[in-house]
Design goal:
- Keywords: DNA-binding.
- GO terms for molecular function: DNA binding; DNA-binding transcription factor activity.
- The longest helix is centred in the last third of the chain and has 15 residues.
- The chain has 9 helices and no strands.
- It is mostly helical.
- It has 2 domains: about 55 residues, 434 Repressor (Amino-terminal Domain) (Orthogonal Bundle); about 70 residues, 434 Repressor (Amino-terminal Domain), CATH 1.10.260.
Length: about 140
C-alpha cells in the first residue's frame, strides 16, 4: 500500500454505499472524475484509494470516510483523524504552516505535536482538543 493510500478501507461497505446510491461503477466514475478501473479495484480489494480520490467519490455519494473505514474511535491517531476529515498530508501541512515533511514527522510520531498547534489542528479536523492530544500521544506510542 502506498504512503497516500487509506488504511482500513472496507471495500464491501464502499460497494454497499455506491449501490444504495443507485450508481453503477461507470456512473460513479463519470461523476467523480476517478477512473472506472480504480473504483472497481477498490471494490474488489485489489487496491485502496488515496485520501484525495476517496474524498472525491464520497462527495458524489454524499457519504463520509467514517462510513467506509473500519476504525474504532479509541484507535484514532493523527493520521486517522486527518483521513477521516478528508484531508491530505499537504492540506494539513499548509494549514499549520509546516513543510510536508515536518507534518509527516508529526504524523509518524517521530516529532511531537507542539502545544501551539493543538487548537488550530482541532479546528481544522473538526474535533476537540482532547481528542487531538490523545491522538498525538497514540501516534507517538504507535511509533515505539
Amino acid at each position: 500500500m502506498g504512503k497516500t493510500s487509506v488504511e482500513n478501507f472496507d471495500a464491501g461497505k464502499f460497494r454497499q454505499i455506491r449501490e444504495a446510491a443507485g450508481l453503477s461503477v461507470t456512473d460513479l466514475a463519470k461523476q467523480s472524475g476517478i477512473s472506472r478501473g480504480a473504483i472497481s479495484q477498490w471494490e474488489n480489494g485489489i487496491s485502496t484509494p488515496s485520501v484525495a480520490r476517496l474524498t472525491a467519490v464520497l462527495a458524489v455519494l454524499d457519504s463520509h470516510a467514517s462510513e467506509v473505514l473500519d476504525v474504532v474511535p479509541t484507535d484514532f491517531d493523527l493520521r486517522t483523524l486527518r483521513i477521516l476529515s478528508g484531508l491530505t498530508r499537504s492540506d494539513v501541512a499548509t494549514f499549520l504552516k509546516l513543510s510536508e515533511s515536518g507534518w509527516g514527522d508529526i504524523e509518524r510520531g517521530t516529532t511531537p505535536l507542539s502545544v501551539a498547534r493543538i487548537e488550530p489542528l482541532s479546528k481544522l479536523l473538526g474535533t476537540d482538543q482532547t481528542t487531538i492530544v490523545r491522538a498525538a500521544q497514540r501516534t507517538i506510542d504507535n511509533n515505539r
